[in-house]
Structure formats: structure tokens, C-alpha cells
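U., I forgot to send this yesterday:
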Amino acid sequence: MANRQIKKVAVLGSGVMGSRIACLFANVGAEVLLLDIVPKEAVDSKDKTARNKIVNDALAFALKSNPSPIYDKRLPSASAPAISPTTSRRSRTVIGSLKW
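Result:
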């Protein structure tokens, strides 16, 4: 069996488990697409911040939690940008480009 190198990961759901899985992959250097649903009040909105509220809030909460899901305290600035929070509607084409 050939060795696989995972470079890009999509995590569906940004709750407690999903946001921490995203942090785990960011810790090891993978580019992470963290996905969640659009809030009901922002379904018709074109405002990206309003549409990504659930996923942004979940990621912010994960980064502030104790114990931290980021292994090295110097990494939040380095690994959090490796996590791209977004809604699942926008990311269908991105997910389709992933290998599995």
C-alpha cells in the first residue's frame, strides 16, 4: 500500500467535535475547510459574516477552550488561517475537488 499524504481536508459540521477535528488537522499542517449550515435568519442574506456566523462562532469557541485543541500555544495565529470556515452551499465545488 502506498503512503498517502493528506494536504486538504473538509470537515462537515462545526460543533464541538467538528471544530476540534478541524484544529487537529490544522495542527499537522493540513488545509482545512470547516463547513456548517447557514443560520435561518441569514438564508437570504448576501453578507458573508452573517451566513458564516455558526461556523465562525464554533471555531472561535474551540480556539478559546481549555484545554486548547491547538497543541502549541504559538500556533493559533499560524494554524487558524489554515482553517477556512464556510457554509456548505458555497463549498460544493471545493468538496467535489477533494480525493475522498
